[in-house]
Specification:
Distance between the termini: 17 Å
Strand content: 25-35%
Number of helices: 3
Radius of gyration: 15 Å
Largest sheet: 5 strands, mixed
Order of helices and strands: EEHHEHEE
């Protein structure tokens, strides 16, 4: 199966379990790996035959910016659910990065994979 990638989609949102995290917007980054059949698009060279990744990015950014999750796990799971429900995607891998969440590390994150048939 073919894949479309979007990497380092950055947004600011309310996320975290601590009181101070519920009051300030923090930067997160989202990586998306979306399994789609690209044979028709490869043959036609038409946007109508592929996944519009700009629309996907806009939808994810709008959702993340308005969300208020405590856990990156919950945020990643909901992004996956939305993408499978609203776009022609067979399977998705969502990685949510929360830079600086752990002292002395560059990044903390989760990876969630979901499929339409699961």
């Amino acid at each position: 199966m073919d894949r479309i990638l979007i990497t380092a989609l950055a947004a600011e949102t309310i996320i975290g379990i601590h009181d101070w995290e519920r009051e300030v917007r923090q930067r997160i980054e989202v990586d998306l790996e979306m399994w789609v059949d690209l044979r028709a698009a490869a043959a036609s060279d038409s946007i109508d035959d592929t996944l519009n990744y700009k629309a996907v990015a806009k939808r994810v950014l709008a959702f993340v910016q308005e969300s208020r999750f405590r856990l990156v796990e919950a945020l990643a799971g909901e992004i996956a659910r939305i993408l499978l429900a609203e776009f022609s995607i067979e399977r998705v891998r969502v990685t949510v990065h929360k830079p600086g969440a752990v002292r002395h590390s560059r990044d903390v994150g989760v990876i969630i994979e979901r499929s339409r048939d699961a």
